[in-house]
Amino acid sequence: MTPITLEKRGHQAWITLNRPQVKNMLNGECFIGLADAWEEVRADDGIRVAVLTAAGEEHFCCGGDLGEVIPLWTGVRQPANEVEERLKADPMITDRVMLKEKPLYKPVIAAINGHALGGGTELLQATDIRIAAQHAQFSLPEPKVGIVPGAGSMVRLTRQLPWAHAMRILLGGEPVSADDALHMGLVSEVVPLAQLQARAEHYADSICRQAPLALQAIKRTALETHTLPWADAFRFEMEQAGAIMMSKDAREGPRAFKEKRQPQFTGE
């Protein structure tokens, strides 16, 4: 069974965590598979949106497979195969998996089919639109086993949520329900599990009807200006807006509106 699958559906890339028998925990093959999948999404100009989901009906991702990955990185044991050799030689792979080292400016949708614990909750913070099944839960229990959620959460969560909500998740360790996550702003929408796939498809289809360069510029500006002073942020925004105004898509949009037809955006 392939632990990470990537299926291209037209302009969409559907990435699936595929270890339901072990709660979709991230082992070495998952780290490599996810890092490679994100790079393929980034490099393929035909892909306009990525959807991240998981196999099964109970767990989205219950974090890293601590028994396999942590001892390798801490030096407790030596690599036993080619996958572990690559992990040992690339300790920064987590940054690529969590989209920290190199941001992905294409929109990413998360279809959260169940519990997201530890690394699962950390992975979600690298996505943009997050749709959760009603039974999903979220938590960062790392301090209970003597470690920290160091794959992005200690920085991202307090920037994405109000302080008190972020610290409840970071310090409390107790699971947060899907409804509470919606109230906090951790997820965008909560739906019955049976509707999750359709809602993810709805958002992905909507994104594919819009100008891809414009969407990437919007996400790039939101990410890059988040901590800049206003004057610098507005300057960056204007640079992005100016570049988009020179694109072929920026001419196609108004032309299609005037001609009362759907625009045919090409990403140029």
UniProtKB/TrEMBL annotation:
InterPro entries xrefs: ClpP/crotonase-like_dom_sf, Enoyl-CoA_hydra/iso, Enoyl-CoA_hydra_C
Keyword Membrane: no
Enzyme class: lyase
Pfam families noted in UniProt: ECH_1
Disordered as annotated region, ranges: 248-268
Compositionally biased intervals (Basic and acidic residues): 248-262
Example GO molecular function: enoyl-CoA hydratase activity
Keywords attached to this entry: Lyase
EC number, UniProt record: 4.2.1.17
Record GO biological process: fatty acid beta-oxidation
Family designation: Belongs to the enoyl-CoA hydratase/isomerase family.
PANTHER family: ENOYL-COA HYDRATASE, MITOCHONDRIAL, ENOYL-COA HYDRATASE-RELATED
Protein name: Enoyl-CoA hydratase
